[in-house]
């Protein structure tokens, strides 16, 4: 994607950035563009409204090595008259360069051989050179000779061409050996390394130096042998596709309505959209909001949420407790307790599962169970069969039945109950009226 | 006998063409239900106001790229892992480091907090997922109590506890996902189907559900039944690796972030992609996505160092957040939705609100 943009930028037939030669003192600066031109081009061609965004993108394109400031090692983009030059495609990152330190040594060495002010080493480069001289002490003669050879080749080139090539070469090294403190954009996400474009997996030299031991790049981890698609794979795919074709799906209009309705219902609970009361702890540095949520006294807003769906009340500890108390008043708490027990079963370590299955069976389903739940005969049949194998999903069918029962029956009644309605209307500071009402109910029945 | 002969006659090519024609038929069927676009219906929804989100906390302490992070249920503690093998547990509200452990491998790409808050899980290039109980005893060496739970044949890219400390779900570069019993280390279920590395996963937010979604380098997002190990739905519209998947809070849809520089929304009931979040100026991959509590906002971290905030319903970008100085590699909204945290290759984590 970057390469498409960079190519377009240089194409003057389709409104690219104006590339020109600028006169300066005694010499000419060939083939440059200004930062402002680049930023303007990006804004116009990529529909960017904010120049800050365009500058950021420009800086990234520079940091990646596609365009560079001619007078700076640090690769950023400025929205002013600073001059930039486009990088030669030869040096583009997509060519999978991973230049060795020998190449870098040759480069720095040859820079010191050319007596030009513009080629003088920066402090960090001088330090790098010193370090490399120590590291390559034994083969320094070889490096020196390679550098000399490179200088000879360079001298044969046209003056203007050399200016351009020198700057492009410097920019290449600014990407691969960045100024200390700058991001090294050549760093890779190791998960993606296996599928790089470089099939040879061999490092190539910038200066055509063949090493005795052509090292295999450590970054190119041995890729897995690609598993060929078998007939079985395709058969499975066909089965899958047939299942999907038979699936009953909703129309987009219905789906859109559902997504909008859900989001609209919860927007008042979304602290990043509707400011939290009393405050968002991260913004105010005050944890009052969290303290309130920890207390057993639920806010009106929290109570209202229990009414959104059965899952909401099951998710909230305080809501569950209220619902349980209500069920106890109706002498049907075994349903919720069964549901909770099965949830708990699924959280057990494997070795404890069989025991828990037995316990749940005895408590809720066995003949004469103390908290007998009401299952239809079909479901009961399935469950008693499952119990024989005692696994985590033994009670799935039964749990689903009980869930549906609670949702359509008890939950609906709870929402209409005085207990819930009082909580919904109760003032935040007042004592919970619900507690008193519930006990009143139990005493009278 | 007759059926055997029939199978023999089915060449790979004929099976492939059957599969292709079924894909075409499926696309036809789905297209019939595509009567409107989400953003069109959402035109009637009130536009969001101006967004002012800032970095409220910066967590410094990792010595190398931060690769992964996860919130604790207590809404303030965070576990994060990095390229240099360090895993740190922070109280991000005070920015204090509470625990630190050094893994025996580099590139710890996955880390997760246990629901109880008493343990963490992590792994990466060691191909394993290990669980460390968190102890407040200063004399106790965290690494000593380490338990190896999952074993894959390639790097661990993601891990997540189910709603219990006792089970862990993992995703790996070996192309599979797996469910493990923490106590015994036993494999409870494996999930095969991706054609390349699996990079991410997310558990459905239901109280009763048993499904999760995964995304991989095969450009597919797949929804799995945890009980049977079967893939129940698959989506293939991205043009490159899917780096991140996250369920919409109702569980009816999920979002994905990809190297193709887009984020997309897939609805499970429509069995289709229903929105795409992209801009001409966004040309770097999205590494990590998460929804705000209501599902109205989608936060996405990118390889261009920025975080883009999307209006999920309208499909437009609400805000762009600058601050990180290198790729954003991980991003999660806090359990109560009051903030979100981003981790970056610039060695830091930031909490935004």
TrEMBL record, chain A:
Its main location: membrane. SMART domains: DEP (SM00049), G_gamma (SM01224), GGL (SM00224), RGS (SM00315). Residues 13-88 form the DEP domain. It is a peripheral membrane protein. One of its GO terms (cellular component) is plasma membrane. PROSITE patterns: DEP (PS50186), RGS (PS50132). Residues 309-424 form the RGS domain. Keywords: Cell membrane, Cytoplasm, GTPase activation, Membrane, Signal transduction inhibitor. It comes from the Eukaryota. GO terms for biological process: G protein-coupled receptor signaling pathway; intracellular signal transduction; negative regulation of signal transduction; regulation of G protein-coupled receptor signaling pathway. GO terms for molecular function: GTPase activator activity; GTPase activity. This is Regulator of G protein signaling 6. It comes from Macaca fascicularis. The gene is RGS6.
TrEMBL record, chain B:
InterPro entries: G-protein_beta_1-5, WD40/YVTN_repeat-like_dom_sf, WD40_G-protein_beta-like, WD40_PAC1, WD40_repeat_CS, WD40_repeat_dom_sf, WD40_rpt. It comes from the Eukaryota. Residues 9-39 form a coiled coil. CDD domains: WD40 (cd00200). One of its GO terms (biological process) is signal transduction. Pfam families: WD40_Gbeta (PF25391). WD repeats lie at residues 59-91, 149-190, 191-234, 235-276, 288-320, 321-353. PROSITE patterns: WD_REPEATS_1 (PS00678), WD_REPEATS_2 (PS50082), WD_REPEATS_REGION (PS50294). Keywords: Coiled coil, Repeat, Transducer, WD repeat. Component of a complex composed of RGS9 (isoform RGS9-1), GNB5 and RGS9BP; within this complex, the presence of GNB5 stabilizes both itself and RGS9 and increases RGS9 GTPase-activating protein (GAP) activity. Interacts with RGS7, forming the RGS7-GNB5 complex; within this complex, the presence of GNB5 increases RGS7 GTPase-activating protein (GAP) activity. Interacts with GPR158; promotes the GTPase activator activity of the RGS7-GNB5 complex in absence of glycine, in contrast GTPase activator activity of the RGS7-GNB5 complex is inhibited in presence of glycine. Interacts with RGS6. Enhances GTPase-activating protein (GAP) activity of regulator of G protein signaling (RGS) proteins, such as RGS7 and RGS9, hence involved in the termination of the signaling initiated by the G protein coupled receptors (GPCRs) by accelerating the GTP hydrolysis on the G-alpha subunits, thereby promoting their inactivation. Increases RGS7 GTPase-activating protein (GAP) activity, thereby regulating mood and cognition. Increases RGS9 GTPase-activating protein (GAP) activity, hence contributes to the deactivation of G protein signaling initiated by D(2) dopamine receptors. Belongs to the WD repeat G protein beta family. This is Guanine nucleotide-binding protein subunit beta-5. It comes from Macaca fascicularis (Crab-eating macaque).
């Amino acid at each position: 994607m970057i390469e498409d943009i960079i190519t377009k930028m240089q194409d003057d037939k389709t409104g690219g950035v104006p590339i020109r030669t600028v006169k300066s003192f005694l010499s000419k600066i060939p083939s440059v563009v200004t930062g402002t031109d680049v930023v303007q081009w990006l804004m116009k061609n990529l529909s960017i409204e904010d120049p800050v965004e365009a500058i950021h993108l420009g800086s990234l394109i520079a940091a990646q090595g596609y365009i560079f400031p001619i007078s700076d090692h640090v690769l950023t983009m400025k929205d002013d008259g600073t001059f930039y030059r486009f990088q030669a495609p030869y040096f583009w990152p997509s060519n999978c360069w991973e230049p060795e330190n020998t190449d870098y040594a040759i480069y720095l060495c040859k820079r010191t051989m050319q007596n030009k002010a513009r080629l003088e080493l920066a402090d960090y480069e001088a330090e790098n050179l010193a370090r490399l001289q120590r590291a390559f002490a034994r083969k320094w003669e070889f490096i020196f000779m390679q550098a000399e050879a490179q200088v000879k080749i360079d001298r044969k080139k046209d003056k203007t061409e050399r200016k351009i090539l020198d700057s492009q070469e410097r920019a290449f090294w600014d990407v691969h050996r960045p100024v200390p403190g700058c991001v090294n954009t050549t760093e890779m996400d190791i998960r993606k390394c296996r599928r790089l474009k470089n099939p040879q997996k061999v490092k190539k030299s910038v200066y055509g130096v063949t090493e005795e031991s052509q090292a295999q790049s450590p970054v190119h981890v041995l890729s897995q042998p690609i598993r060929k698609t078998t007939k079985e794979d395709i058969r499975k795919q066909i089965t899958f596709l047939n299942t999907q074709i038979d699936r009953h799906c909703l129309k987009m209009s219905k789906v859109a309505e559902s997504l909008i309705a859900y989001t609209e219902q919860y927007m008042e609970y979304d602290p990043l959209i509707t400011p939290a009361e009393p405050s968002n702890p991260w913004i105010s540095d005050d944890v009052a909001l969290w303290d309130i949520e920890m207390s057993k006294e639920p806010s009106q807003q929290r109570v209202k949420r229990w009414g959104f769906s059965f899952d909401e009340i099951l998710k909230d500890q305080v809501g569950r407790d209220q619902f349980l108390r209500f069920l106890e008043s109706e002498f049907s708490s075994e349903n919720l307790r069964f549901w909770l027990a099965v949830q708990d079963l699924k959280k057990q370590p494997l070795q404890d599962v069989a025991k828990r299955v037995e316990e749940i069976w005895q408590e809720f389903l066995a003949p004469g169970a103390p908290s007998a739940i009401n299952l239809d005969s079909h479901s009961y049949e399935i469950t008693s069969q499952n119990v024989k194998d005692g696994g985590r999903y033994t009670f799935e069918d039964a749990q689903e039945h009980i869930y549906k029962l609670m949702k359509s029956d008890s939950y609906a009644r709870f929402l209409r109950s005085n207990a819930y309605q009082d909580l919904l209307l109760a003032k935040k500071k007042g004592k919970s009226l619900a507690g008193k009402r519930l006990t009143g109910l139990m005493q009278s029945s | 006998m007759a059926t055997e002969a029939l199978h023999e006659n089915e060449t790979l090519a004929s099976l492939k063409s059957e599969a292709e024609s079924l894909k075409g038929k499926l696309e036809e069927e789905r297209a019939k239900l595509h009567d409107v676009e989400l953003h069109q219906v959402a035109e009637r929804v009130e536009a969001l106001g101006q967004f002012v989100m800032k970095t409220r906390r910066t967590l410094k302490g990792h010595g190398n790229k931060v690769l992964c992070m996860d919130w604790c249920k207590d809404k303030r503690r965070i576990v994060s892992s990095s390229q240099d093998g360090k895993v740190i547990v922070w109280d991000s509200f005070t920015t204090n480091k509470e625990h630190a452990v050094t893994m025996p491998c580099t590139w710890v790409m996955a880390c997760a907090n246990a629901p109880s808050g008493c343990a963490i899980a992590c792994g990466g290039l060691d191909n394993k997922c290990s669980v460390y109980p968190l102890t407040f005893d200063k004399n106790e060496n965290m690494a000593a109590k380490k338990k190896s739970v999952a074993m894959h044949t390639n790097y661990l890219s993601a891990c997540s506890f189910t709603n219990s400390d006792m089970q862990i779900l993992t995703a790996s570069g070996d192309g599979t996902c797996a469910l493990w019993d923490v106590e015994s280390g036993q494999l409870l279920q494996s999930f095969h189907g991706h054609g390349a590395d699996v990079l991410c996963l997310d558990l459905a937010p239901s109280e009763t559900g048993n499904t999760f979604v995964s995304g991989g380098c095969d450009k597919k997002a797949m929804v799995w039944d945890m009980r049977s190990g079967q893939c129940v739905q698959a989506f293939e519209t991205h043009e490159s690796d899917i780096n991140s998947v996250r369920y919409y809070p109702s569980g009816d849809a999920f979002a994905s972030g990809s190297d193709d520089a887009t984020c997309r929304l897939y609805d499970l009931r429509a069995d289709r992609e229903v929105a795409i979040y992209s801009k001409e100026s966004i040309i770097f991959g999205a590494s990590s996505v998460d929804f705000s509590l209501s599902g109205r906002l989608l936060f996405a971290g990118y390889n261009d160092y920025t975080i883009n905030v999307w209006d999920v319903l309208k499909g437009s970008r609400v805000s762009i957040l600058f601050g990180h100085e290198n790729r954003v590699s991980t991003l999660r909204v806090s359990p109560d939705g009051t903030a979100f945290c981003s981790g970056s290759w610039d060695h830091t984590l930031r909490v935004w609100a």
